[in-house]
Amino acid sequence: MKKALLIVYGVIFLALILLSIFGMMSLGEFSLPTLVSTAFSAIYLTGLWGYTFGKKIWTAVIWRRFFYLLCFGTIVTFLIGTLAVGGQQAIEAIIGLVISIPLVYCLYQYSKGEQSYWLNTEENLKGRILNDLMANNKSELELEKEHGSSKALIKVSMEDDEYVVRITRLNGDSEDSFKNTFANLGHLAIFIEQYTFIKISDFERKYA
Predict the structure, then answer these.
(1) Whose CA is closest to 116, among 199, 195, 204, 188?
(2) Does the structure show a pLDDT above 90 at 166?
(3) Which of 26, 85, 184, 206 gives 20 to 30 Å between its CA and that of 76?
(4) Percent helix, strand, coil in the chain (nearest 5)?
(5) Which residues pair with 163 in a beta bridge?
(6) Does the pLDDT at position 89 exceed 80?
(7) φ/ψ bin of 148: left (φ > 0), alpha (ψ from -120 to 50), beta (otherwise)
(8) In terms of Cα–Cα distance, which of 118, 187, 185, 193 is closest to 158?
(9) Residue, of 81 and 76, whose pLDDT is higher
(10) Distance (Å, whole) CA 111 – CA 130
(11) What does the pLDDT read at residue 31?
(12) What DSSP assignment string belongs to 141-164?
């Protein structure tokens, strides 16, 4: 249902872009600023398509920058239309703001780095492994491992629709404890392997 609504919205957004181009060309007002605006609209539409179908286009960082640019452009256009001009332009500015809200939301969601489509295949695989293990163990995993004089204890759980990892590292007399939360298990897997000597395969062996 969500995808269908986004597809309809994307078609309407594309139609508005084409109508705007046709109208300006008919009036002979197709200038360089209009061309730049149209190019950015096409980029935003590309981001909407990527979010709708879960496709990886460019990078999350690039889309977060386009998200900020869209927010800035939308706010400036709205303020100019309602405060500096008024009248018919004010109504058009309000309509433009309403139409842009879903696009702003989609670009924000699309630019989140924890989305699964920004992870490579190996990271997705590790995330799926943890997901399957948690599904079979009441959404909680715990593992302790020694490596020479060092020891690491990891607890992974599900709290308030987020994945929480708690890590305790022991090395001689020193102890270091910290936790982090993730929306995606692939990112959680990366975090574990980056900050400890424990691998996702260790969880597989324990809970197999």
Answers:
(1) 188
(2) yes
(3) 26
(4) 65, 20, 20
(5) 158, 182
(6) no
(7) left
(8) 185
(9) 76
(10) 24
(11) 65
(12) EEEEEEETTEEEEEEEEEETTEEE
For residue 90, give both structure tokens.
């004010």
Strand-pair category, 174-182 with 140-147: unpaired
Angle, CA 42 vertex, CA 84 and CA 12 arms, to 5°: 80
CB 70 within 8 A of CB 44: yes
Residues 43 and 23: their CA atoms lie apart, in Å, by: 21
Between the alpha carbon of residue 45 and those of residues 16, 24, 59, the distances in Å are 11, 20, 15
Taking alpha carbons only, the member of 44, 57, 55, 38 closest to residue 9 is 44
| Nearest in space to 196 (alpha carbons), one of 178, 182, 181, 184 | 178
**Whether 177 contacts 168, CB under 8 Å:** yes
Q: How many CB atoms are closer than 10 A to CB 113?
A: 14
